[in-house]
């Protein structure tokens, strides 16, 4: 079974530029999560989808961050414009809502963003 | 905020057992206790979870206190590859039927000495 795929692995941009990250979850997983992990901290949930609907985006800075999962499969997270404090690893995870592995999250390797 | 408390760091010798503690004094009756670990430069990976009874799998064992206010992740024989940050997390609440939200704390950084 293929895992969660994320791209790119690394991205370096200057402040005020835009950037987008892509995630392809495990096949059949209805729930998709985007996390931000700043160096030395645990992952912080930004947004959670179930199929193509948002179920929680309370921690998403909506003035600059946006995310979509149009067909209920893969997802993109965008930052526009980026700030220095957005430098972090952006992790995507997915989980199923049924079966023996219900609610167990499977993570991708993440995208490391550096904003200069 | 995270609903769990863990030590910032621990050390263990290779091939010895490791007991990683977690306090969750505000746990509710239906909260599962989940453990994940994050190896360097990787995303977190699932380790184990439980509700009331102790649990074992190929990676670790989970011992849950009778009052469920604390739990311990047990690695029976630590190897160098077990060096990671270990997170103990509770689900934060039901956001939609069958879907829960989880909040990660800062975890315990485990160092394994050769």
Your description of this structure?
The complex is a heterodimer of chains A (116) and B (114). Chain A is mainly β. Helix content of chain A is 0%, strand content 47%. Chain A has no helices and eleven strands. In chain A, the strands form two sheets. In chain A, strands 2, 4, 5, 6, 9, 10 and 11 form a seven-stranded mixed sheet that branches. A four-stranded antiparallel sheet of chain A has the order 1-3-8-7, with no helix packed on it. In chain A, β5 and β6 (53-56) form a beta hairpin. Chain A is globular and about 45 Å long. The model of chain A has no long low-confidence stretch (mean pLDDT 93). Chain B is mainly beta and 114 residues long. Chain B is built from no helices and ten strands. Chain B is globular and about 45 Å long. Chain B starts with 8 loop residues before the first strand and ends with a strand. The chains are: A mainly beta (116), B mainly beta (114). The interface between A and B is medium-sized, with 27 and 26 residues.
How many DSSP E strands of chain A? 11
Largest β-sheet summary of chain A: 7 strands, mixed
| Fraction of residues in β-strands of chain A | over 45%
Strand content of chain B: over 45%
Note the overall shape of chain A.
Answer: globular
Topology:
The complex is a heterodimer of chains A (116) and B (114).
Chain A: E1 5-7, E2 10-13, E3 19-24, E4 31-37, E5 44-50, E6 53-56, E7 65-68, E8 75-79, E9 88-95, E10 106-107, E11 111-115
Parallel strand pairs in A: 2-11
Antiparallel strand pairs in A: 1-3, 3-8, 4-5, 4-9, 5-6, 7-8, 9-10, 9-11
Chain B: E1 9-13, E2 18-23, E3 33-38, E4 45-50, E5 55-56, E6 61-64, E7 70-75, E8 84-96, E9 99-102, E10 108-113
Parallel strand pairs in B: 1-10
Antiparallel strand pairs in B: 2-7, 3-4, 3-8, 5-6, 6-7, 8-9, 8-10
